[in-house]
Amino acid sequence: MILFTFYALYAHGYALILVQPGKTDNGLIVSPSFPGGDATSLTATPPSTPASTSTPTSDASASVGGQTPTPGSGQYKDGTYKGDSVDAYYGLVQVQAVIQSGQIADVQFLSYPNDRQNSVRISAYATPILTQEAIQAQSANVDIVSGATLTSQAFQQSLASALAQAKN
Amino acid sequence: MPVIIEIADANAKQADFDKIFSHFEYVDGKFNVFKPSSEISLINGGKIPEREYSSDMRKIFSLAEQTKLETNGYFDIVTPNGSYDPSGIVKGWAIYNASKLLDADGFKDYYVYAGGDIQTSGKNKSGGPWKVGIQNPFDQKQVVKTVLLSGEGIATSGSYVRGNHVYNPKEKNKTIKEIVSLTVIGPNVYEADRFATAAFAMESDGIKFIENLKGFEGYMIDEKGIATLTSGFENYVEQH
Predict the structure, then answer these.
(1) Predicted TM-score of the model (pTM)
(2) Nearest chain B Cα distance for residue A117, angstroms
(3) Do B134 and A127 touch (CB under 8 A)?
(4) What is the predicted ipTM?
(5) Alpha carbon distance B84, B45 (integer Å)
């Protein structure tokens, strides 16, 4: 089985995509999307060596801030590194990578196209592939149930409408 | 809001339960936005200036502000019409405080449930972890997942088929539609509740937020009945 790993820098996101032959669309993951703006693919740069493990984070080889990590080892020097400011056609994209214990701990946007002046920091760190499943009813042999209780909401709505009528 | 307490200790007396129910009555009297006489309703009606807020009210506002910062604004007690509704944080806080009361009285094996959120401690009466079901958002009589908890807190944030009670503070006119429930397991119910509330407002991205949060696991159900699990969620699931 060969794992192909490539990196694409989107107009507003940094995405790590792991593709396995035969894997369904659920095997593709993208970074959290920004409010406003579609992903525009800029460059897809295949790595020089194929990934040898299935862990998405262990072989990130994007060079940041002029520091080139040891190829294939997945180890980085701890610190915070600013990437190049890249023209994404719709604007500039610049990321900053935070390395802790030799691993990517976070990737932050320093600028992105159409960015509004706010202090919200949006993490661009791509998450590992999350498992999905169709929900299935199970035997209710439990001590207690957690849920967004419909009964209490209905009660509150009913009470609110009664009180609205009761207002002078 | 329904409150259920189970203490798996033969020594528990009615007075022990009454103490916890009284605590919830106190919280309800102060924070229920549907009670016209509550402190929060009076604040929303402009009847109480900020300098006269009670100390628990100040505490909740302060915790809400902290949570807002930690979730990049996705948790916000200010509603679209400008009034305050702290229920997304009060519930977990109240249950957590109730559990502290039980701890102080020496109880080790119990759960405290209020409005769909639960704080567990120790073992159930069969001597194992507490078995907590996750409700089917499409059929409240069904359970779609069973998790085993012993000390963790669990909270579920959701929207309803007939209407939404959780909105996205970032886009105040937009109602949440892509996902219908998000359950969070955390070190205690206060933490689980505030992050479940914020993560739900992030819609499909909410589960990624929980994935990136150390010490928390999540189970998100979308409008099509497809669930997404954080990578450590299976550790809590009852295996057969």
Answers:
(1) 0.66
(2) 14
(3) no
(4) 0.90
(5) 10
